[in-house]
Amino acid sequence: MKDKDKTKAELIKELNALRKELGESVLNDITDRKLTEEALYKSQQEFSSLFKSSPEALVYIDEKSKILDINSQFTKLFGYTLEEIKGKNVDSGIIQSQKMICEGKNLTKKALKGFLNYETIRKRKNGSEFPVFISSAPVKINDKVKGIITLYQDITERKRNDNLQKVLYNISKASNSPISLSQLYPIIHKELGNIIDTTNFFIALV
């Protein structure tokens, strides 16, 4: 039957059916978008909670190295609040000495391509430097890298213990070698100098 042959009632019936079909389609589309938005919001909240409550220092930067967020442990470790450094380039010397800036930029480039672990030196707000273990990973949204999350772990104690064990091992090795006390003394003095100030340290030879 051609449209011109249809009665007014039949046309109204078809229009109502079409309106109902389109309405359900729009409603389903809105529902799907609402569910997607809710899932995204939940994911963002979970991410934020994990980020803020992490026991290690974390910084979140965008793909251009600008600081977007930090957690309380970052503030505790480096001395900076988010208000002080948000929007600043993480590789501009804020948390590294001038001589380490180039290294920082290279690490960021590598982290944009994949997971990265590295040991290096970083600087606090007060200027003091300390050894850190860095762990970085890219943040991807829709398969596009949008930034990096980096973890900083202070390894001062670990380094100190490693150095102590090395010194004790070297002294023990020298003590058990066939050398005289006069030869052993400078070795002990040198090794202890790696962990303490030996300026006024003397060993009495008897």
Tally of contiguous helical segments: 6
Order of helices and strands: HEEHHHEEEHH
**Total individual domains:** 3
Q: What Rg do the Cα atoms give?
A: 32 Å
CATH class of the largest domain, named Alpha Beta
Under the CATH scheme, the architecture of the largest domain is: 2-Layer Sandwich
Mean pLDDT: 83
Principal-axes geometry comes out as rod-shaped
Side by side, the strands of the main sheet go: 2-1-5-4-3
The CATH topology of the largest domain is given as Beta-Lactamase
Q: Give the quaternary arrangement of the chains.
A: single chain
The largest β sheet comes out as: 5 strands, antiparallel
Walk me through the structure.
A hairpin with a 2-residue loop joins strand 4 and strand 5. This protein has six helices and five strands; from the N terminus they run αββαααβββαα. It has a five-stranded antiparallel β-sheet with strand order 2-1-5-4-3, sandwiched between helices. With 206 residues, the chain is α+β, with helices and mostly antiparallel strands. Helix 5 runs antiparallel to helix 6.
Quick structural summary:
With 206 residues, this protein is of the alpha+beta class.
Summarize the SSE layout with pairings.
Elements: H1 8-53, E1 57-62, E2 67-70, H2 72-78, H3 82-85, H4 101-113, E3 116-123, E4 129-141, E5 144-154, H5 156-175, H6 181-192
Antiparallel strand pairs: 1-2, 1-5, 3-4, 4-5
Helix pairs in contact: 5-6
Keywords: Coiled coil
Pfam families: PAS_9 (PF13426)
Protein name: PAS domain-containing protein
Attribute tags:
alpha+beta; PAS-like_dom_sf; 206 residues; 3 domains; Beta-Lactamase; five-stranded antiparallel beta sheet; 50% helix
